[in-house]
Design brief:
Layout (H helix, E strand, L loop, with lengths): L1 H11 L4 H30 L4 H15 L10 H18 L3 H8 L2 H17 L25 H26 L4 E2 L2 H9 L9 H6 L2 H11 E2 L4 H9 L1
Parallel strand pairs: 1-2
Helix pairs in contact: 2-7, 3-8, 4-6, 7-10
């Protein structure tokens, strides 16, 4: 259904074959670079044993993964259309009862307003309301849709990296009776601040992230609390 909508969208837009070809080419390049970057991060985790380095790498990963979002640039024409629609929408909403009655009796004005609404619905079908404080949806496949096997390559690289990273953090930071929520743990959690879809379900179970969440909910404490003091005195 989503692919069909995208095809219909492209057919209705004045995009030349060369523009579409260039866009797909750019996505393929982005996909290769993303897969390579994910592999490099995995290699850093797998071939180092420093807890401090692992914390730093997790922080860098959290920052890098936030670039995995839908990349859409509005052209000047579409920007102008959106501004005009917003202004007209505000004008209609602010009409008093008499103005609204006159407006409803004006067939030409009603037809024009209906066309504007239909156009806006069509043009904004790919807009995202945004989660996580207003940011766009974050997923390792965003911005590289439609590149065939490179999607699978990127998915496998992502799944491998996050499985390796979670295993390391569980062993280094969570295998304790009490877990202090320090910058290392918070950086690791930040790297998981992503969206996932149905293709990720098996990976999420295999990665043991649910076990990590269970441990954090049961054993985590914040530095400076009474638990922190008691732990230090015990040590």
């Amino acid at each position: 259904h989503s692919v069909t909508r995208m095809i219909l969208y492209l057919l209705k837009k004045p995009y030349s074959p060369s523009m579409i070809r260039d866009s797909i080419s750019a996505r393929r390049i982005r996909a290769r670079r993303r897969a390579m970057g994910l592999r490099l991060f995995a290699s850093l985790f797998e071939h180092t044993s420093s807890k401090i380095l692992h914390q730093e790498v997790a922080g860098l990963l959290a920052a890098a993964i936030k670039q995995c979002k839908l990349q859409r640039i509005l052209d000047i024409e579409e920007t102008t259309r959106r501004q005009a629609f917003k202004a007209e929408s505000e004008r209609v909403q602010q009409m008093n009862e008499k103005e609204r009655e006159t407006f409803d009796q004006n067939a030409e004005a009603l037809s024009k307003w209906q066309t504007m609404k239909e156009t806006d619905e069509f043009e904004t079908m790919w807009d995202e309301s945004g989660d996580f404080g207003g940011d766009a949806v974050l997923h390792y496949s965003r911005g590289i849709e439609g590149v065939g096997e490179l999607n699978t390559l990127t998915m496998n690289a992502f799944h491998h990296l996050y499985t390796v990273m979670t295993s390391i953090f569980y062993r280094e930071f969570l295998a304790q009776d009490k877990v202090r929520l320090d910058s290392g743990i918070l950086g690791f959690l930040d790297s998981w601040s992503l969206h996932f879809n149905e293709r990720d379900h098996a990976f999420l179970h295999d990665s043991k992230i649910f076990e990590v969440i269970k441990v954090l909910m049961s054993n985590a404490y914040i530095s400076g609390t009474s638990t922190d003091t008691a732990t230090d005195e015990h040590v």
